[in-house]
Amino acid sequence: MDKLALLFGSVEGVHFDKITAGSAKPLVHVDDVVAFEVSNRVKAANDDKASDAAKICKDINRMLQADGCVGYLRVHHGARLIDFPGRKTPISDEVTVHDTGDLEGTVIRVGGKDNTVPVTIQGADGFYKCQTTKPIAKLLAKHLFEGQVRVVGKGKWLRDSEGIWSLQEFQILDFAPIENSSLTQFVNEMREIPGSDWNKMENPQAELKRIQGD
Description:
By secondary structure, the protein is of the alpha+beta class. It contains six helices and nine strands. It has helices spanning 2-8, 32-47, 52-67, 134-140, 183-191, 204-212, and strands at residues 14-20, 25-30, 71-74, 80-84, 95-110, 116-123, 126-133, 149-159, 165-177.
């Protein structure tokens, strides 16, 4: 019931009136004042797979799958709006991919005492848990809560049984500020790292623009 309330998005305007045909069929009443909002959320659950409503539907389906059940949401005496395949959900094999890549976001945490330093970046899709070396971590710390950065490195991505990809690990090998930063100052900072390839580059500004995606 709690998940259904979250799906509808309005606790005050949604009421669970009664249970029909056993405990498996709750009857829900939606107040007129929130009917449009609830309708949009139900539509988003079907049309926008990245929406909050769609993620809640996945949670509901997982719960049904764990209980060995199936379900659906429909208008009373009307059409079905959402199907929950539950136990009938096709199960795909998990896939792990190791590859180079890049992430964008705001540095919100740099810390740790080991040679490999944990770094947390807040991006558009959530929080990225990364690792890097002490010299790079020291430079990243200067951008803590300040603007956006693009980090490049080696990552490990997992595709789960529902086909959803998630980042498991990411080793930051390099980074560049996306905005509000002096290119010359940044290049000089990167050249201070012992063994940095930035010291060998004939045109470090061009490399920086490549990382930035310009």
